[in-house]
Amino acid sequence: MAPLFFMLSFFLSIASADPDIAREYRPFFILYKDGHVKRLMGNDFVPASLDPKTNVKSKDIVYSPQYNLSCRIYFSDSNNTIKQKLPLLVYFHGGGFISFNPFSDKYHEYLNTLVSEGKIIAVSVQYRRAPENPIPGAFEDSWTALEWIASHTKGKGPEDLLNTYADFQKVILSGDSAGATIAHRMGIRQSQEKLDGFNIDGISLHFPYFWGTKPVAGETTKGPERAGVDDLWRIASPNTTGSDDPLINPVTDPKFSSLECSRVLVIVAEIDILKARGYYYIEKLKESGWKGKAEILEFKGEDHAFNIRNSTSENSVKMLRRAVSFINGT
Question: Do the record's keywords include Hydrolase (predicted)?
Fold first, then answer.
């Protein structure tokens, strides 16, 4: 998988001789003039199963019959030998709102390992992808998934694993890239709508896909690079007001300080074009009057979503351990 996961594609986008193609963003996707996308990676589907490496079981449950969207639930009997409630991780995958899915091999591998190491139960959320389903579709689907998950808080939901083992007072929202953007927004929405019995203890944002019209400290000022990030957002959200839309630039949101959790962790990578936005987010969150604890962790020499691309590298192992520590509040 190429560096920068999806972002580099916009700096390497090329015109095409095919009259039906608007732009080619190889090796990630091709955008056609009628608005649909041919995805060139992240289309694989790993079936839910018992993972022999981690002894973690997974199963897929449809949470949105309307759009045929599923959650993949991860659980290990070995993590819960005394049948106690476990911290619940809700994870949103990355890919610029356009690529990948929670059933891709890299995400499946990551969630298996995280559940095994963290001694937790996890739900990985599928959402509709742009541009066929433009923003705010991904955000609406993710909230619908949280509503479905929260339907288990009284032990009477449709999935026994969540009824029996999930501790709904210890919910962690997390995601990488666009998924981190979604996780933040779900924290804001929970502050306004309050899912009953559902307490978001922490939010862990990995390489968050935040942006804005004006460069912040440490951020690139190069026109083509900035235009590339702007273009990605406009492809996913054609009706947006621009890169200061609160969905992509959260500090412009009047509700920013109401973020519903007591702890936030942001993880960034040194050579990721989005790194400065992670620092800016933490800075503004602390200044906003929000009452929680916020921290940021940077990995030197690394690029966007490096832990998903190579889960066994030294820094990926360190990142996994930090994610586990945050989930468990240690």
Answer: yes
Q: Taking a C-beta distance cutoff of 8 angstroms, is the pair 173, 259 a contact?
A: no
| 209, 235, 325 from 200: Cα distances, Å | 21, 31, 16
Tokens of 69: 């969207």
The answer to whether 251 and 281 have CB atoms below 8 angstroms apart is: yes
Annotated catalytic residues are 177, 272, 304
Work out the angle at residue 212's Cα, subtended by the Cα atoms of residues 207 and 215, and round it to the nearest 5 degrees: 95
| pLDDT tens digits, one per residue of 94-138 | 999 999 999 999 999 999 999 999 999 999 999 999 999 999 999
What HEC string does 135-196 produce? CCHHHHHHHHHHHHHHCCCCCCCCCHHHHHHEEEEEEEEEEECHHHHHHHHHHHHHHHHCCC
Tens digits of residue pLDDT in 14-50? 556 678 998 887 778 898 988 888 999 889 999 999 9
Helix (H, G, I), strand (E, B), or coil: what is residue 241?
A: coil
Backbone φ and ψ of 218, nearest 5°: 85, 0
Using DSSP's 3-state secondary structure scheme, residue 132 falls into coil
Q: How far is CA 96 from CA 28, 74, 83, 244, in A?
A: 11, 24, 38, 17
Q: What token pair was written down for 93?
A: 């995958």
DSSP annotation of 25 reads E
CB atoms under 10 Å from CB of 84, counted, come to: 10
Amino acid sitting at position 41: M
